[in-house]
Q: What sequence folds into this?
């Protein structure tokens, strides 16, 4: 059974919680919350956050509405007073789960690394199971995983294994560490390869040291102790490379945000020296490439890409506070027609939309985005987060790729976007 | 990619500057801590409501104010800039994503519009959906509320308006059930979303027809949809056969959100970028030029190099200014000097909210080119312009001048920067041309 730390060493936690005193009840978070906009089950970030938090004690709460917060973090992003609304709500949700017990489902779907290890060797069987309507119906009844929710297909191989055999094409002394995350490792290894090839094309030697799950799915489901163990181990694995001066470049924007900020702020790991060290050196891959461009170091030998693409910046990507670097990179490619998504969230929020009782909410949150994609009718959607891509693909039917896949094609490095081997399943 | 201009702040002044610059071809990056303050405001542009007495004609009152009070932001800007900025905003709304939703009114005269507590409020430019509420016309009005909606009490509004207009307006109150499409309790945002759904306006019109009397203006809370206010408003007026007006609500403000969405969309259309969740913690500069801003982002700090900085961070309520326990007031983003702060242990506040507070006009002092002045009154930075509520010398809450100062100074900052860039490129062109000649 996991426990929540309420000890007095949790200084940052006190600061996070204390930020509720800055709330002036302006309601901007209520205007932007995508979940309360579509369901009365979640009363909104201000109510569930700064207001309810004052009444939360060590005893179990009778109010369970915070469970319907998807953790997208938009409330924190839009708050003009710097209240850490999403972080306060994450902690409250974790305490609630701790008091009430965590469903078996949440213990299973949050172990992305274990699922990946189990599913990879038996990928055809596992994928057939995930595609089987009757079995999904059973899964919904027994486990509470919605039968229509987008689940990725196992690639049947790992990026890790490819990395061990991969020989860099360009000898160089500039090194970066590629943090691929469970998504690229078990489900989208081709995306990981493309990211490595794009980095190598720009003159970097790419290291892939032993890594592991960042713990984000566990954190979102309130399993804080387990999440801490994972993220500490990951930071420990990455720290030696950082000490030698390398940046850590991530292809999963939400896992990157976990390392940059969320593990420190939500899990209260501000005193973990290795995590702090790693945190300051993590870069989302599009952020890293735009930085290279600003330094005049990005190769711009892009061939035209005649395609129309809707770009959706996921809520987790917006949590970085770096704008939309993918759009700047797309601007370097001739022929590419980019339509920016009008929406802030596709609804899935990691594992939220997989859950039986939340599936309809997640689909309603994402509806304006799916409608826009249908209206624009592009051949392609680009999005920085894997679970969002799976959700968008499932809901709209349009192939959804990471921005790096489009760069990879524009560099003339290989096959078409959409060839990363994940879409068309689920 | 290095922007020509970084605007710090995403409220009225920052977006007015950002849109004006981006539409003229400058590359603009707007950095905002949160979503900005526009959606808290009623969405009207109040230029000058009170100068001692209630103001009937803002432009002439601004000219008089500028002569009387040379430290006031309007004295730096002048009435012509205010009029120009008002015309600019009206034209941008008409080209915006919500068109034909537009702004009506004139900087030459103030309307008097009802507030959510029934006080007549002088306002110059207002959404078309509010214009019919002008109390100067007299006559009859019915304030229609939705049962269960918090913070909107038709009887309170009606009683106060009747009293405040000395009986020139006869105002009564009534309540109707919220629209059936409503999902959850009747809050401002839920009502606005419900009224934006297909058929919702027609259904509401049918209900309104049963409560309206022949010669009444129908006044509703400002929830006539987020995305199609013109369509909903027109439908109601046509079906009810009566003028319909929106009364701004307590926050959240739907008309404020519409204004914000419009400006944000115009910025994006013109190639400007808006980055939220980041805040400025310092700068790099030498001499009188600021070269880059240090910005806090997740996991650390980023450096944004730029040629121009527009400081649009707002006043104390937005965190642009902060007063510490040692009586020092700071401008929080760039550390500019703040003028108008009483000396330690001198009175800072007066007992009543709407009194003249000794601290009330504190803010950054600027010259006519909106460049910040240091404590000795000298221009501190050549490429930094200060706009909006960060400027000292005004008391917007007493004057009802906040949006006007923000809009006019933001608009002016864009003009000043574009003018300076033009003269630089002209002189560069001259230099190139000379050898040939």
A:
């Amino acid at each position: 059974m996991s426990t929540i730390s309420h000890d007095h060493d949790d200084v940052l936690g006190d600061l996070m919680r204390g930020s509720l005193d800055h709330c002036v009840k302006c309601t901007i978070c209520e205007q932007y919350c995508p979940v309360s906009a579509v369901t009365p089950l979640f009363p909104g970030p201000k109510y569930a956050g700064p207001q309810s938090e004052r009444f939360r004690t060590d005893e179990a709460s009778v109010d369970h509405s915070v469970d319907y917060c998807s953790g997208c973090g938009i409330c924190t992003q839009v708050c003009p007073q710097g209240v850490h609304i999403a972080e306060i709500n994450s902690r409250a949700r974790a305490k609630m789960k701790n008091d009430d017990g965590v469903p078996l489902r949440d213990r299973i779907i949050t172990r992305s690394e274990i699922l990946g290890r189990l599913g990879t060797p038996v990928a055809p069987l596992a994928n057939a199971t995930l595609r089987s309507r009757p079995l999904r119906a059973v899964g919904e009844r027994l486990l509470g995983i919605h039968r229509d929710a987008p689940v990725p297909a196992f690639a049947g191989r790992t990026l890790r294994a490819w990395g061990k055999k991969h020989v860099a094409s360009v000898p160089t002394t500039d090194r970066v560490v590629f943090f691929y995350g469970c998504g690229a490792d078990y489900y989208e290894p081709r995306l990981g390869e493309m990211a490595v090839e794009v980095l190598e094309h720009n003159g970097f030697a790419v290291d892939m040291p032993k890594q592991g799950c960042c713990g984000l799915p566990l954190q979102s489901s309130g399993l804080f102790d387990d999440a801490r163990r994972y993220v500490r181990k990951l930071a420990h694995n990455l720290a030696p490379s950082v000490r030698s001066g390398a940046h850590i470049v991530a292809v999963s924007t939400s896992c990157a945000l976990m390392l940059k900020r969320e593990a420190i702020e939500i899990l209260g790991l501000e005193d973990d020296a290795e995590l702090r060290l790693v945190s300051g050196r993590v870069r989302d891959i599009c952020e890293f490439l735009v930085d290279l461009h600003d330094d005049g170091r990005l190769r711009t030998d892009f061939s035209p890409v005649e395609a129309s693409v809707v770009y959706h910046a996921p809520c987790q990507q917006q949590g970085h506070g770096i704008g939309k670097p993918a759009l700047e990179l797309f601007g370097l490619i001739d022929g590419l027609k980019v339509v920016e998504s009008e929406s802030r969230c596709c609804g899935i929020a990691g594992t939220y939309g997989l859950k039986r009782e939340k599936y309809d909410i997640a689909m309603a949150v994402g509806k304006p985005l799916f409608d826009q994609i249908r209206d624009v009718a592009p051949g392609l959607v680009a999005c920085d987060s894997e679970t969002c891509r799976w959700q968008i693909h499932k809901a709209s039917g349009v192939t959804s790729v990471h921005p790096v896949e489009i760069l990879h094609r524009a560099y003339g490095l290989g096959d078409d976007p959409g060839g990363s081997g994940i879409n068309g399943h689920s | 990619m290095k922007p020509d201009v970084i605007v710090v702040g995403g409220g009225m002044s920052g977006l007015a500057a950002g849109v004006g610059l981006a539409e003229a071809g400058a590359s603009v990056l707007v950095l905002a801590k949160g979503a900005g303050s526009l959606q808290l405001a009623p969405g009207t542009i109040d230029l000058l409501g009170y100068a001692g007495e209630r103001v009937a004609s803002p432009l002439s009152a601004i000219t008089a104010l500028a002569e009387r009070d040379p430290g006031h932001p309007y004295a730096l800007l002048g009435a012509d800039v205010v009029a120009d900025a008002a015309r600019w905003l009206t034209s941008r709304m008409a080209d915006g994503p919500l068109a034909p939703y537009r702004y009506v009114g004139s900087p030459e005269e103030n309307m008097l519009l009802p507030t959510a507590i029934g006080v007549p409020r002088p306002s110059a430019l207002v959404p078309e959906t509010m214009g019919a509420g002008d109390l100067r016309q007299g006559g009859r009005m019915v304030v229609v509320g939705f049962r269960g909606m918090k913070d909107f009490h038709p009887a309170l509004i009606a009683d106060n308006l009747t009293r405040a207009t000395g009986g020139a307006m006869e105002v009564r109150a009534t309540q109707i059930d919220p629209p059936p499409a409503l999902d959850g309790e009747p809050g401002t945002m839920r009502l606005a979303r419900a009224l934006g759904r297909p058929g919702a306006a027609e259904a509401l019109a049918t209900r309104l027809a049963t409560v309206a009397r022949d010669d009444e203006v129908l006044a509703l809370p400002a929830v006539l949809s987020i995305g199609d206010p013109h369509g909903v408003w027109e439908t109601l007026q046509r079906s009810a056969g009566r003028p319909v007006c929106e009364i701004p609500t307590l926050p959240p403000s739907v008309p404020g959100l519409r204004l914000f969405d419009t400006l944000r969309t115009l910025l994006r259309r013109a190639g400007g970028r808006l980055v939220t969740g980041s805040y400025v913690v310092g700068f790099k500069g030498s001499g009188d030029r600021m070269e880059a801003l240090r910005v806090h982002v997740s996991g650390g700090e980023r450096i944004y190099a730029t040629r121009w900085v527009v400081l649009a961070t707002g006043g104390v309520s937005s965190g642009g200014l902060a007063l510490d326990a040692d009586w020092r007031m700071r401008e929080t983003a760039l550390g500019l000097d703040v003028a108008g702060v009483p000396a330690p242990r001198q009175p800072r506040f007066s007992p009543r909210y709407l009194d003249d507070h000794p601290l009330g006009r504190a803010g950054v002092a600027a010259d006519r080119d909106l460049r910040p002045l240091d404590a000795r009154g000298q221009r501190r930075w050549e490429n930094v312009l200060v706009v909006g509520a960060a400027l000292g010398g005004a008391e917007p809450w007493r004057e009802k001048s906040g949006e006007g100062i923000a809009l006019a100074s933001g608009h002016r900052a864009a003009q000043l920067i574009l003018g300076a860039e033009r003269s630089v490129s002209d002189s560069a062109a001259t230099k190139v041309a000379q050898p040939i000649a």
